[in-house]
Amino acid sequence: MPKIGMKPLRRQQLIDATLESVAEYGLQNTTIMTISRIAGMSSGIISHYFGGKRELIEATVNYLLEQLQQALLERITQEKPPAQTRLHLIVEANFTQFQRSPLASKTWLSFWAQSMHDPALARLQSINSKRLYSNLKYSYRQLLSKEAATNAAKQTAAMIDGFWLRSALSKQAEQEFEIAEHLCKKFINDLIKQGDKLCH
User: What is the dihedral of CA 107, 110, 112, 113, to 10 degrees?
Assistant: First the structure.
């Protein structure tokens, strides 16, 4: 009989192996064989726990999304942090050491490219974008008028995504990620100072 708790462990090992495979070979060249070899398991284990490569890829992307959400929750130590602080925490959650790691960043890049051709991945990308926008708008709404908060959320989401992408593609990624996080926070502070001028 399988040991209690073995299923979550095996699933996580396969997700970790998928991250490694995508980082090394890219999403298109990642196969059941490359994943099982990295995981040190038989290829049949993937079918047993996930059904196939497609389902495992989706589970891996979901894992990245969960890490983003968990990073934000862990940073909100108060029940209701000030809105500006919460906005900074959202930035930090998107620039954690995990999210800027080669494994995560290469998987995100491959995922974004493939999501244009895969409806299931496109759905996950939509969830990710809407969640970021919603979190930003909720905080800005406490500081700005409705219209200004909407504009600020859109601009900040684009700023976070854009800086993250440029940093991930940089040859000095770690340094660029540090600068990007700082500039995103500064951008937020500047938007708040501008206030309702964002409406016009």
Answer: 180
